[in-house]
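Subject: Protein record for review, amino acid sequence with backbone structure tokens
Why sent: The fold of this protein is of interest and is recorded here as tokens.
Notation: Tokens come from a learned vocabulary of local backbone shapes, not from coordinates.
Attached in line: The record itself begins immediately under this heading.
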Amino acid sequence: MLDQLLKAADGPLKEMLAGMNQENPSATASALEDSLAGILKQKVSSGDTSAIAEMFSGRETNASSSVIQGLQGDVVSDLIGKLGISKEQAAGIVSAALPMIMNYFNKNVNNAPQANEDIMSSVISSLQGGEGKVNPTDLLGSLMGGGKGDGGMDLGGLMDMGKGLFK
């Protein structure tokens, strides 16, 4: 489920990366999403749910937050390996992308029909191999603009959300 959620931030992430003059924003976004998903899964499996809790808190996440700082080194190292870029390039990408991704979900969780805590616990449960209070299909649909809890995805709403991040 986390992979699918991170893919939802793909459009705004690629747009941001293109604005940073990345040669291949699609490849960079994909590598970043894969890295972040893997690192978040590792953290949850070791009992550290702080990043998931922050991602679905509904509150603004600053670039200087302890959660961002805690993820940054691992994501930078992973990107260097995946993309073959310098540490400085990877750090620049990650320092801009992590807060953007966190705040993308913080904004959307506030508009979802489910309670923030239910969404967060459902994502954590799915990462641990269990089931949460919210059906994964309903969760994806409501976070991505379906809003009806029917698992449907309103692509127009998703596009509007992406555009709204870069006004």
Summary: Residues 147-167 have pLDDT under 50 and may be disordered.
